[in-house]
Structures are given as C-alpha cells and as structure tokens.
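dude i think i finally got it to work??
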Amino acid sequence: MIALIFDMDGVIVDSNPMHRESWVAFNRRYGLETTEEMHQFMYGKRNDQIVRGFYGDGITAEEVGARGRAKERLYREMMAGRTEEMLVPGLRAFLERHRDLPMGVGSNAEPENVAYVLDEAGLRRYFRAVVDGHQVHNPKPHPEVYLRVAELLETEPANCIVFEDSHSGAAAAVAAGMRVIGLCTTYVNLPGAVLTIDNFLSGDLESWLQAQMPSV
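look at this
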C-alpha cells in the first residue's frame, strides 16, 4: 500500500503570502527591510536557518530561537480566522477520499504552527503521523523529516508519495527515495517531481494515483 505525505506551508495551506507579510512586519522591529531575495531564501527552510540568514551568525542560539518564536506568534495572530480560506483548493475533499491510506505530515515548520493549522482546520484526524522541524536534527533538504514520517507510518520510502512546493522539500523527498508531486503554489516546476499540479482539484492527480493502485 502507498502512503501519502504532505508538507504543510504551500501544500496544506497556501501560507507563503502570510509568511511574507509577517516577516516584513517582524524584521521592521529590528530596522531590517525585507527584500525579495530574502523572501526567496525563506521558502522551505526551518526558522533557525531563516533567522541566521536574515540577521547573520553573530546572534546567540537563544536569540535565534526567541526571534523565530516571536515571528511565528505574529504569523499566527495575522492568520487568525483565515485558516479555512487559506487551505489549498480541494485539499479537504482529497483527504476525505483517501482517508483509508496511511497519511502523514512532514514539515520544517515550528511545532506551534503545525498544531495551529491542523487543529484550527480540523485536519489532524486524517494524519497518522506528524513530524515538525523540531523533531529532527536535520531540516530539509536533508531527508530525515520524510524518513521519520515513513517510519511512523510503517511504510517503505519507495511506497511514499510526497506533496511538496519548495526546492528544499522536493530535494529531501527525492533523497529519501520517495516520489514527489509538486504543487505550483510557490514554484511552477520542482526538480524531481513526477507530476506537477495546481492544487488538489487536478484531474491528473486522481488518475495518476489510481495508476499507482491498480487493485483499487
């Protein structure tokens, strides 16, 4: 049996525009103007990587953590009451159709953000495993996140299909020996993707999945 694994930002919720807004507002607290290059650097990375990338390696690990947590509190405040409208189109119906398959979440995101999205949207019941960026030593593009989800789902990596929107996430899934379906929420094409879709309403997605499950 195949297993389906989902990144969160850009896959479950189309949250990158909100992350952009919150980083702009947060960085201004420190007199830092956020450039497009900085936004591009942010996609698919864990917060400690982003904070160091924005503010340099001179700040302490404690300050890195504090700034990351403060930014994500701001993000959740800005997101309040908007989770449902930010879900990627077709996601809820897709999860319901495939609820009998092993499904998991593998994200570089902060644990509070993952919990907020899954609980606010009522999606946690679909996922047998949830691994966030603080449950692994190595964030994407290292494959550890996805390998841990596969382990919890008791599914071989070769039988896992990963939904991703970022270059680092796609690289992590490929390195884990998994197949990648790329969503166009962040980039038009992801290297290594076996299929590219706009969202979960894509007819190509269902036909491709059915081909992976000939007995269904």
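The first strand starts at residue 3 and ends at 6.
im so relieved honestly
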